[in-house]
Structures are given as C-alpha cells and as structure tokens.
Amino acid sequence: RARLGIAPDALVIGSFGHMNPYKRLDTALRAFRALRQTRRDALYVLVGSVSPNYDIKQTIALLGLSDSAHVVGYADRQRFEDYVAATDICINLRYPSAGETSASVLRLMGAGLPVLVSRTATFEELPDGACIKVDADENEKELLVGYLRLLAARPDLRRRIGASARRYVATEHTLERAANAYLQALRAIYPAL
Prior knowledge:
Blueprint: E1 11-16, H1 25-36, E2 42-47, H2 56-62, E3 69-73, H3 77-86, E4 89-92, H4 103-110, E5 115-118, E6 132-134, H5 140-153, H6 155-172, H7 175-189
Parallel strand pairs: 1-2, 1-4, 2-3, 4-5, 5-6
Helix pairs in contact: 1-5, 4-6
C-alpha cells in the first residue's frame, strides 16, 4: 500500500481485468457510492485496460466519486500484483457472458481474496463458499451494497472466503488438472488417443 500511495487502514475494493460495459462497473460504482455513506475510508481501484468505447471515468465523475474511485488502467505484472495485495474485496461481475472463464477471477481467488461475481455462466461452476455470487437482475445493486457492507464489517469473513477461494484454485486449477481435462475431452472425440 505504501508503494501505491494507499492508506494502510483504507478499505480497498478492486476490479481487475479489461473494462467494458459487460463488467457491470456502473452498477458496482453505484453500490460503492452507497458503501461510502458509512465507510468514508473506502477506495475503489479499477485495474486493467479500458475499452475505447467505454468512458468509465465519466461515470465515476457523474457519480461524484472522483476522490475515491481511481482508474489505474493497464498495469504491468508487478503493479498488478501490488494492487491485488493491497485489495480487501474484489468485484468481478460479468453479464451478459459469452461463457468464457475469467483469468482475473482465478488470479484473485488464488491470491486468497473474497470475490463478488455474477451468478451466471461459468461463474455458476465456482463453489459457493469460495466466492459470493450476485444475481444479475433488478436487485443486483442492492445485493452488492449488502455484500459490500457485510464484508467491510467482517474481516474474519473476508479471510474465511479468501482461504476457501485459495484452496479451490490450488486444487482445481493446476496445470496438471487442465492438461488432463483437455486430454479427456480429446479422448471423447478421438478415442484412439
């Protein structure tokens, strides 16, 4: 945090990865604004490249969050890891989804962080105790606000979810497991393998 200029006692919320409208950052920022009503020390960092057709900085300004929500933009590996290490809670929503697997979610979970994800597509496959799933419906913002407030008030819960996330990634997302899964899929198509 010292290297990044972040106060040691701040509550840091982070979103990582390419930023575009499908990442639901507008909703996440509105939930963050509600959290700031009770947690003035909260800071939101958005780390990753920004789609050229997505003006996230304007959304931040319109919501009056320019002093507490910062678009870091693309970060090299060391800076990315610094921001991950400085973060308390992650938001990584995605709706609609193209069915892709989120590398950033797995990195964040592997780092032992509690991650809020959309209850949709491949995120449904993540175990409930290793992340927090948020319905992508009319209640999305209220659910985010509730989860953010709960996690902000309960560092023990953040640690417990983070530990579960780390265990899940360490056992289920190894290179060996991925290679075996590809081999099994190929054998289903080409039995001679």
